[in-house]
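Example 3.2
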Amino acid sequence: MVDAPWASRLQDLADLTTPMTLRVAATLRLADHLADGVSGIDELARRTGTHARSLHRVLRHLVAMNVFTEPSPGSFELADLGKELCDHGPGDARTWLDLGTAVGRVDLALTNLLDVVRTGEPAPGENTWSALDADRALSDSFDDQMASGAAAKAPGLAAGYDWGTVERVVDVGGGNGTLLTALLLAHPHLRGTVVDRDGPIDNARRKFDGAGLTARASGAAQSFFDPLPAGADVYVICGVLHDWDDEHAGRILARAAEAAGSHGRVLVLESLLEPSSARSSTTDMDLLMMVTTGGRARPFEDMVALGAAAGLKVLSRKALTAPHTLIEFAAR
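Structure, written as tokens:
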């Protein structure tokens, strides 16, 4: 952004140049090329299939932002911050910023925010689930990105609930089985099933096989709007409900309640909106859902109401690693 006649903090917040140049760098894997010792602009352009002078201008801005350095004209190196853009860097930032991945593409939908605020409807053409069903590579990238979040939540869930009396667990919308795998490895007495679309379930079965869990873990390729595998002790719904509007989130909870019956439990793990101390990570996710899926982040009171409409009551609420909260439901 050019210098503007307002406070620098607001200018920094409003800037779109740096977010987009970071995404271009991530998509082109510039940090990995630099880490491999490729430093000259011409060779970087050749390897990335880009226009050298245009690429130089992108790199020059990222030097100004302390992501890269330019020790001599036209020769670039990684700064400490730039190392986070390498594949498998801290937090896996590169794949989340890559414009070729599911989440990278979804982020661009925020350019439709004004229309969504005016209409109250998600942006036209932003049906995330149809896009994933139509493109297996895109679907796999989504599963991998969601798996990194599930892996971060898994230790808290494994330690934050009494699994001693549980025999069978169903992970509703559990993607490629990362969360269920972690639970079963942490608690060897558990058996489990993950429910999701065809692509994620194929990946989950491979994950279970690789972890030596095929005797204890299975996958059910189906919609979670259809009847779920019945009779499990616990139904886990982790990071799913915020993807959906109240009608659809309620239907997911109702299916879990139906399958759990009078003796099972439904565990919902979500980032809750806390009006007194809003977290930018949660409000950011809330707006992204508003634009793309019509879903939303919810305060605890709204989760209670959704559960009640599905015939569930809250048994417990427990804060896990911020900003995640575990809510235990049972039949009313």
